[in-house]
Design goal:
Length: 459
């Protein structure tokens, strides 16, 4: 519990409506999108308006040893922004300025700016910010940087870290450091920008990001293929990825297709064992050649039907259906959201293992995947009112991560470890890498005030 006089000190240092303590108002800052049941109740929410206010809040927290949970838009899927009891939530939602520097082809962005708004600002200047989590309309750049967010076009264009040239970060003692800058090439010193990308608010608070922009994306053609099984669809992905890189390669299994159709009918084939949506944005005739290669891979793997279109709007409808999968599944019950990945050739094995786990635990595990990256989202559905259903779902959750690790994969490809997966991280990283991780954490945050319980399990 934070002493009342300490809270008064915080309010005095950050006047106006920056500090919120009313439980009715702080309630919406408790959870991220995963609705992590272990989330605590914040004693205050600081809605900082600039980096100086972030520094004030963090210096105060350091002086009083109060946990600080940084928060962007709360769309995270691993409980990374879950509040902790006795702590504050530091919301960056009010810091949302975006400046486009066309001569350097960069965006200088405050952390609360939404991904979609950065994309729109870049597009106005004829440029493109590629990272595109499915949640791009509802997530912030600060959250994207902190989770090293991925998305649909990563298969060809890389993930958030590939676009971060510079960061301003408030450290655990309140110091503001500026790392990197508008320079495309810069190897002076350690790669500290990379250290903070993906650190999930455990090492510092991002107050500004300098993001690389690229020329606008060329027109895309789309291939949609249906398969009798999810294994066959994965085999097609392995084949096409061994010779080419589509600019999008997404998989939906039958349960995901049906969940979307139940939620909002989009005309998808409910009987298909799996659906692949693949795109090429290669120039001119190369695009047709890439589409032919994709189609050949699908047919060789036993595709039931292949449909190709150069019509951007038609292609986007399929991509929208894929983006709809999380909200659609949410309507079916409570979800445990998985994010496991493997080297691409092992994708069929991972999907087979997930199918076996669903059967043996008698749980529904619809799968969507950024298949071209080997990154899958098996989403375990359970009935929260049924204790046995929840027990089986939680056991299956652990088994899916174990299956990925056994295949040389990862427990999280893009959502982050957060608090939901911290307990499983040592199984993937092993004792030496965990010790190194802890050394870095202790060096930067000796009192452990920044996002305790995220990445490193506090239990
Ligand atoms: C429907 C849906 C689809 C999604 N699809 C994808 C997808 O395709 N790819 C993908 O990668 N993710 C996806 N996500 C997950 C989520 O949108 C991303 O993890 C996103 O990057 C989180 O951004 P946010 O602003 O909501 O962050 P939050 O949820 O607020 O926070 C996420 C983490 O970042 C930390 N954090 C936030 N801001 C800062 C900051 N300024 N400084 C330091 N730490 C900070 C938090 O403490 C927390 O650990 C999806 C989520 C939903 C709901």
């Amino acid at each position: 519990m934070i002493p009342m006089d300490a809270l008064e000190e915080l309010r005095a240092a950050l006047p106006g409506d920056v500090v919120v303590t009313d439980p009715a108002a702080t309630e919406k800052y408790r959870h991220d999108w995963s609705r992590d049941p272990s989330a605590g109740t914040p004693e205050a929410v600081v809605r900082a308006e600039d980096a100086a206010q972030v520094q004030i809040a963090v210096r105060w927290a350091a002086a009083h040893r109060v946990p600080v949970v940084p928060r962007g838009a709360g769309s995270g899927l691993s409980g990374g922004a879950s509040a902790v009891d006795g702590g504050i939530v530091l919301s960056l939602e009010r810091m949302a300025e975006i400046e486009i520097d066309t001569s350097c082809q960069v965006a200088v962005v405050q952390p609360g700016a939404f991904n979609k708004d950065v994309k729109a600002a870049a597009a106005e200047a004829g440029l493109w910010y590629p990272p595109d989590p499915s949640s791009y309309e509802i997530c912030s750049i600060g959250g994207n940087v902190a989770t090293n967010a991925g998305g649909l076009c990563c298969v060809k264009y890389g993930v958030t870290t590939d676009y971060v040239l510079g960061l301003d970060v408030v450290l655990a003692d309140g110091t503001l450091v500026t790392l990197g800058g508008k320079r495309i090439k810069d190897v002076a010193g350690l790669s500290l920008v990379k250290l903070f990308v993906g650190s999930e608010g455990t090492l510092g608070i991002v107050t500004r990001a300098i993001l690389r922009l690229v020329p606008a994306q060329a027109a895309r053609s789309t291939l949609v293929a249906t398969f009798p099984t999810v294994h066959a669809a994965a085999e097609a992905v392995v084949t096409m990825r061994s010779t080419m890189r589509p600019c999008l390669c997404e998989l939906m299994d039958r349960d995901s297709v049906n969940a979307v159709e139940d939620h909002r009918p989009m005309g998808l084939d409910r009987d298909a064992g799996a659906l692949l949506i693949v795109q090429s944005d290669a120039p001119g005739e190369v695009r047709s050649a890439e589409l032919a290669t994709m189609q050949a891979a699908c047919e060789a793997a036993g595709a039931v039907e292949c449909f190709a279109t150069d019509d951007a709007a038609e292609g986007e409808q399929f991509v929208q259906a894929r983006r709809m999968s999380f909200p659609a599944l949410e309507a079916r019950g409570s979800l445990l959201l998985e994010d496991v990945g493997v080297p691409i050739p092992l994708l069929p094995d991972l999907l087979d293992a997930i199918g076996r786990i669903a059967t043996s635990y008698d749980v529904e595990i619809p799968v969507v995947a950024h298949a071209g990256d080997g990154n899958t989202h098996p989403n375990i559905v359970y009935d929260p009112a049924d204790a046995d259903s929840e027990r089986r779902a939680r056991a299956a959750f652990g088994e899916v991560m174990a299956a990925a690790i056994a295949l040389g994969g990862t427990i999280t490809g893009e959502h982050g470890v957060g608090k939901a997966k911290a307990i499983a991280l040592p199984d993937q990283l092993g004792p030496d890498v965990m010790a190194l991780t802890l050394t870095i954490k202790r060096a930067l945050d000796p009192d452990g005030i920044l996002n305790p319980g995220a990445i490193l399990d506090g239990r």
